[in-house]
């Protein structure tokens, strides 16, 4: 079919359309890369906090197994521990707190029975 000379067919993309499409693609790629980087940093931080919590829990368990007289007052450097290549500096702070009124136990009463909650 013959078209009049003033009607033109759109045979494809113009150079300007290709440049705009590449610009949109570049902005999207940079945004996704930034989000991915932030997500990886957050995951690494969470892993390190979990490992630090485990190290602290292990130190607390060791302290619970000591008698009160064996725990030194003040700051004690326990040492450095490495977990997955990350160094954790473990420091213990302890202070003696006397019981109010000289009482060692303020609780009383009978222990609960097996049927009560």
From TrEMBL:
Domain of life from the UniProt record: Bacteria
Keyword annotations from UniProtKB, A to Z: Membrane, Transmembrane, Transmembrane helix
Regions crossing the membrane: 12-36
Protein name, as recorded: Prepilin-type N-terminal cleavage/methylation domain-containing protein
Organism: Angustibacter aerolatus
